[in-house]
Every structure is written in C-alpha cells, then in structure tokens.
Amino acid sequence: MLSSGWVVQKFGGTSVGKFPKGIVDHIIKFYTEEQQNDVAVVCSARSSYTKSKGTTSRLLKCCDLASQGEDFMEFIEEVRQDHVSNAEANVETPALQTRLISDSNKELDLVVKYLEASKVLGEVSPRTMDLVMACGEKLSCLFITALCNDRGCKAQYIDLSHIVPSDYTTNNLDSSFYAFLVQAFKEKLQPIVQSKERIVPIITGFFGLVPMGLLNGVGRGYTDLCAALIAVALNSDELQVWKEVDGIFTADPRKVPHARLLSSVTPEEAAELTYYGSEVIHPFTMEQVIRAKIPIRIKNVQNPRGDGTIIYPDNQAKKGESTPPHPPEALSASFFETKRRGATAITTKSDIVVVNIHSNKKTLSHGFLAQIFTILDRYKLVVDLICTSEVHVSMALPIPDPESYKALRQAVEKLKSLGTVDVTKKMAIVSLIGKQMKQFIGIAGTMFTTLAENNINIDMISQGANEINISAVIDEADSIKALQSIHSKLLDERAQDFEHAVDERLEQIKRLD
Ligand SMILES: Nc1ncnc2c1ncn2[C@@H]1O[C@H](COP(=O)(O)OP(=O)(O)O)[C@@H](O)[C@H]1O
Ligand SMILES: N[C@@H](CC(=O)OP(=O)(O)O)C(=O)O
C-alpha cells in the first residue's frame, strides 16, 4: 500500500484549551503547507486547565444533576461563558466570530432541552447522555474550524454525532461495528477527499450514539478511538496523537526527573502503560490502526518539531514497506539497545484497595473463585491483580471515586459469606513494563531488592501472563520513592549497577558459537 499523503492529527481537550493558535499555525498549517500533507483533525472537548474542569466533565455533571431532578443551569452557563470568551479572545474576523458564538449557543440551547426533559423524568438515558456529551466535541470543533479559517487555512466542520443510525443494534463494540464505522467515515469524508482544493476536515471526536452509550462502551478518551478509525478510513500514513509531553517516557516525567523519552514502544507496552497508570493512549485505539499497518506517533503541541514516540509492533512491516525493520524479531532493535536493559518503562497506579479473602473452608472448594467474581461482577468492580493460594485470595482493585468505593463496601458485605475479609486502602501498584523483559533473568529480582533496600513493604506480587509486566502492590505513600529508585536501577541512562540481570538470549547465542 503506497503513501496516501493523509495524516490524522488528534488534539486533546487541554491542548485545544491552552494552545489553539499554536495548533493552527505551527501544526496544522505546517503539515498542510510545508509538508504538503492532507490533514484531518480530530478534537476532544475543550478543557482550559484540567480535564476535571473541562467541558465534558461539566456536561456530565449536568446529566448527574438532571437525573436527580436538580437544576443544572449553573454548569451550562459556565460552559457557555467559557466558549464565548474563548471565541472573542481568539477568532479575529468579526463574521467568523459572530457565527461561532451563535452556532455554539444553538448547540447549548439544544442540550438544555434534552436536560430539561430528563430533569422532569428524573432519569438520563445513555442516549441522552451521549447527546449531551457530544456537545463538548461540537463546540471544540466549531471553534478550531473558525480559527483555521480565520488564520488562512481552509477548514470544514464535520459532525459525527449522528453517524450511527438510530436503528443500529449490536451488543458489543466488536470488529464488525468498527468496520461499519470506518465505512461510514469514508462516505462522510468522501467529498473532502475528492475536492480539488485542499480542505482540512475538523472532525468531532464524538462519533455517534453508540448502542450502549459511548461512556459505557468506550469510556473517557473516546476521541483517541475516533481518530484511529478516521486514520483507517483515510488509509492515513500516520496517526498523530498530540499531547503536552514530548512522547512516551521511561516514567512519568513529572515524577521522575531523569525519565528518558522513548523513540518507540510496542502497542502491547503502550496498552500496559496506559492501564497501569500512565494515561498515554486509549487502549482500544491501537488494534485498528496497527491492523491497517498505520504507525501512531505521540507528539508535543509545545514542541511540534520533536520526533515524539512511535507506537508500532517491532515485528511487522509498516504501510509501504515490504519487510519488517531490521534486525528481525528474533533480535529486534531494542535487543541491542543497551540503555533499555530489558525494561522499557515503569509506572504507578494509585487509588488501589487490596481485598484479602480467607475461605472458611479448609481447602479451596471449586466454585470459590467463581463466587467471588460473581459478586464483584454484580457491583461492576474490576480486579487489576490477583494472587491465590489454596484457601486465600488477594486482589488489588482500582477504587478511584466515591461511587466505586460504595460498590466495594456493598461487595465486601457479600464476600463475608465466603470467609474472613480484610480490606487495605491507600495502596498503589508499581509496574515495570517491557516486551524484552522475558528474555532477561534478574529483572524481577532487582526490582524487588530495590524496593526492600528502600524499606518499601510489598503487599502483593504479580507477573502478568504476557510476561511484559511485573507488578507489586505497595503503600501509596511510597509510590514516588518506588518509581524513582527502580528507575535509577533499571532505566536511568546513568544506571551503573545492573550486574544482576543476565541477558538470557545473548547467553544462548554465545553457547551456540
Ligand atoms: N510514561 C509516561 N510518558 C509520558 N507521559 C506520561 C507518562 N506517564 C504519565 N504521563 C503523564 O501523562 C500526561 C499525558 O499528557 P497530556 O497531554 O496531559 O494528556 P491528554 O491528552 O490527556 O491531555 C502527562 O501529563 C504526563 O506527565
Ligand atoms: N472529551 C472527552 C473525550 C476525550 O477523548 O478527551 P481527551 O482526548 O482530552 O482525553 C473526555 O473528556 O473524556
């Protein structure tokens, strides 16, 4: 498959909020004018500083209030004010500014209608929630479209919020649903693709009224998935996910000052990092694009010329290449990267609660685990890590908000019928991630010795079946110390003493000689 010339750029809510002019002048225009690419832009709802104060969070708060029959207008007015003053501050051409404000007001008025009806009913259906949430991406894309046109880059607003027909039925968001979406996106973008003039489509990251609701089906961060499907629809050369960091680092650079920028990671590593606390990319994003052989590049809106980090399998050829990059999989490039030393990155996840269950039977009866999971399932609780012995089960659960804490309390009451239950709060999971780790001996040893040397108590240990993740549960208060000390032993450029880990592959090769 040859180069199509298309590049899909996804911008997160805080980037749209903080750097809109930079996005248009130094990113969109750079790729269209200097690189001569065709660019498609996907935006999330605007957040000025943090996601929790962002438009999506405010709109979800309105849904919450309406479902309790309470007044929500205060939050609508906050969203309105935010977008009006943003339009006034950034869009200079009077006609474009007036139209943007009027279009934004219309969208918000519509949301008020949906919410008023829900308030009367005292219930917000998943469909209504989607209709309300979609407004965030609409406002953001109306704004970026106006700003592009204002600054001399021809752009067209594309609303995907009704792309899924109301009679579309599916029980889960499987590959046939994604295939349907890709086809629908292709049709929607066809006029722009065929246009003689270069037009940048500015596409709402909200993609339709998904059968069980976008929040239930995909979750926050759905715009990453939308951008991925657009990249597939356009047979794009690259999917660029623009953030406020230079790419993926060996650890969260805010917590580990010596963290290094990684030039590439595999999709499996990116997924593990995201799940275990480093919110890099929505996990659903990768499968579709990688299958279409499209690389994902994480880049920084504040440093657009940086190389960023590429997410791509180390054993698969890219679009337009006939063979995988050399050296081949058996001895992949990172195998020779001495700096990597087996592990790729380290991450921590906070708000973890450990639940221990001691069976009241002498031996583990069959069905014991099934009973535990049935209870957890009933309360929609997720288990991140689990360790079992014959009569004892330890589980680490993410409990990030009051709602999940309430569910946990109810589940614990039920679990008590199976045995003695104890609960430890304020814990964290520290995870060492690396696709190459499985061929090294001593990495887990070094990780746990480092924790011991730093007086950090380990509550649970787990090595995932995929062998790319070694995790331990520790006190949340120790998580920064754990990150920094393990990083300096196993990932720091200046790490001196890594004498314990033996590269098993290299040893095998030596033995063959
Ligand atoms: N290993 C990591 N590499 C890069 N960033 C990381 C890592 N772990 C955690 N982070 C944090 O993830 C955040 C991602 O960037 P940000 O632009 O804030 O995301 P968003 O697109 O959600 O707005 C950064 O604040 C960064 O500190
Ligand atoms: N606007 C949505 C979806 C999203 O993808 O956001 P972001 O790209 O900023 O993570 C949210 O806040 O969840």
UniProtKB/TrEMBL annotation:
Pfam families attached to this UniProt entry: AA_kinase, ACT_9
Key words of the record: Amino-acid biosynthesis, ATP-binding, Kinase, Nucleotide-binding, Threonine biosynthesis, Transferase
UniProt protein name: Aspartokinase
Job description of the protein: Phosphorylates aspartate, the first step in the biosynthesis of amino acids that derive from aspartate (the aspartate family of amino acids), including methioinine and threonine, the latter of which is a precursor to isoleucine.
Catalysed reaction equations from the record: L-aspartate + ATP = 4-phospho-L-aspartate + ADP
EC number: 2.7.2.4
Domain of life: Eukaryota
Gene Ontology CC: cytosol
InterPro entries: AceGlu_kinase-like_sf, ACT-like_dom_sf, ACT_Aspartokinase, ACT_dom, Asp/Glu/Uridylate_kinase, Asp_kin_monofn, Asp_kinase, Aspartate_kinase_CS
Keyword ATP-binding attributed: yes
Annotated pathway: Amino-acid biosynthesis; L-methionine biosynthesis via de novo pathway; L-homoserine from L-aspartate: step 1/3; Amino-acid biosynthesis; L-threonine biosynthesis; L-threonine from L-aspartate: step 1/5
Stretch forming the signal peptide: none
Boundaries of every ACT domain copy: 432-505
Biological process (GO), any one: lysine biosynthetic process via diaminopimelate
UniProt similarity note: Belongs to the aspartokinase family.
One MF term in the entry's GO annotations: ATP binding
